[in-house]
Design a protein that fits this description.
By secondary structure, the protein is of the alpha/beta class. 45% of the residues lie in helices and 16% in strands. The protein contains 11 helices and 12 strands. β1, α2 and β2 form a beta-alpha-beta unit.
């Protein structure tokens, strides 16, 4: 009897430890970058928000209201049970008036602010531009952090040019005091680096991922440009999406954000949602 109680006690302790461990590992949530539906929103804003809901997506990344008053747009999000988790803030906005973007994020109840592009002459992003950008991003990021939010920069491929013993991105990551990164795995691959290797190298730098797959045979670029029609259903391209999702789950990436810039996005997005869930639920 005593041994049985002891064994039961050990099992309870083990169960509690397991539950505690699971509680500390955040669940990955699927989100959608609304740019994926930029053309569709021109025809019927409410219809396509309803479709997002029908796809089983609860979280979205955007920041605009499609010419609707803020209250009306927020009512639309509530109607379809959608939460805006991230808003875009251009480099110029974050340099010149970050408080306005912070106010917009708070109005939406968004946790993240993301800058998607550093202005530069095409093909000429180098050490000078990277150092200037880090200064701007850190200055804005401090204000974002003080406001209780998280600021991320979204590399587009030109940041992966060689620099010293690594890349310009390595320089930016090493000097990112007040900002994190949103890794777009398509643009990392286009820029000539392995996105999975980046996740392994910087497991604490990427609270957000943009998931998009690339048509096999697509040529890489170093200037942040590419044919949007090379975006294919997740798991059907030449990027190891499954391994990336598994790694994201392991390191606690908070949101897996689908971005499909192709003209086939409406048919491809639900297939990509199914694929992500199949890997997360292995």
């Amino acid at each position: 009897m005593i041994e049985t109680v002891k064994n039961l006690g050990k099992k309870m302790i083990a169960l509690c430890i397991t539950m505690l461990f699971l509680a500390e590992v955040p669940a990955q949530e699927i989100a959608l970058q609304l740019y994926s539906l930029r053309n569709q929103m021109k025809t019927d804003v409410e219809k396509y928000h309803e479709i997002i809901d029908q796809w089983g997506i609860r979280y979205i990344e955007g920041g605009g209201t499609y010419d609707m008053p803020m209250k009306a747009y927020k009512d639309l999000l509530e109607k379809y049970d959608l939460q805006l988790i991230s808003v875009g803030g251009s480099y110029e906005e974050m340099r010149d008036n970050p408080q306005a973007v912070i106010a917009k994020a708070k109005a939406f109840g968004a946790k993240y602010i993301v800058t998607f592009w550093i202005p530069h002459t095409s093909g000429l992003f180098g050490e000078k531009e990277a150092k200037a950008a880090v200064e701007v991003l850190n200055k804005a990021g401090k204000l974002v952090q003080d406001a209780g939010l998280v600021y991320c920069y979204h590399p587009h491929g030109y940041e992966f040019k060689p620099y010293e013993t690594g890349t310009l991105f390595d320089y930016m990551a090493a000097n990112a005091t007040y900002f994190d990164f949103q890794l777009d795995i398509f643009w990392a691959q286009m820029g000539g680096v392995d996105p999975l290797a980046l996740l392994n190298k910087y497991p604490e730098k990427f609270p957000l991922l943009h998931l998009k797959d690339r048509k096999p045979g697509t040529q890489g670029t170093s200037d942040g440009t590419g044919d949007v029609e090379t975006n294919v259903v997740l798991g059907t391209g030449d990027i190891d999406i499954a391994a990336i999702i598994r790694k994201a789950k392991e390191i606690g990436v908070e949101y897996l954000i689908i971005e499909d810039e192709s003209s086939r996005s409406v048919s491809q997005i639900p297939q990509s949602v199914f694929y992500i869930n199949s890997i997360l639920n292995e």
